[in-house]
Structure to design on (120 residues):
């Protein structure tokens, strides 16, 4: 079992910055990828950014050049999402997601979500 807890959401003005943090606990040695997803009202959940255990990073086109995903240097169970130059369309609930692999089976885990609201 893996537990994911997000923090850092809130209200920010357009053009501002915000940093989200996700801390994983439990069977963290089984996690090989962590990422951030978001879901705006009336829309489907979408990938924002992800990072693998090997350090491979993937971004949604809409956030490239503005958002940065990273891991804590020593605490590999902590992932950050630095959000710069935010836009009103970035408003959504942001979820941390982690992929745990056990005996060749993939188990996705989700955090409870943190609200990000960007005012214009």
């Amino acid at each position: 079992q893996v537990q994911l807890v997000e923090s850092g959401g809130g209200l920010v003005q357009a053009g501002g910055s915000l940093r989200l943090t996700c801390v994983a606990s439990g069977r963290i040695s089984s996690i090989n990828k962590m990422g951030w997803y978001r879901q705006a009202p009336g829309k489907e959940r979408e990938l924002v950014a992800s990072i693998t255990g090997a350090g491979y990073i993937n971004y949604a086109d809409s956030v490239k050049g503005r958002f940065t995903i990273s891991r804590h240097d020593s605490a590999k169970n902590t992932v950050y999402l630095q959000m710069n130059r935010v836009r009103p369309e970035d408003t959504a609930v942001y979820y941390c997601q982690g992929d745990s692999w056990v005996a060749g089976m993939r188990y996705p885990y989700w955090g409870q979500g943190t609200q990000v609201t960007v005012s214009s």
About this structure: The longest strand covers residues 92-102.
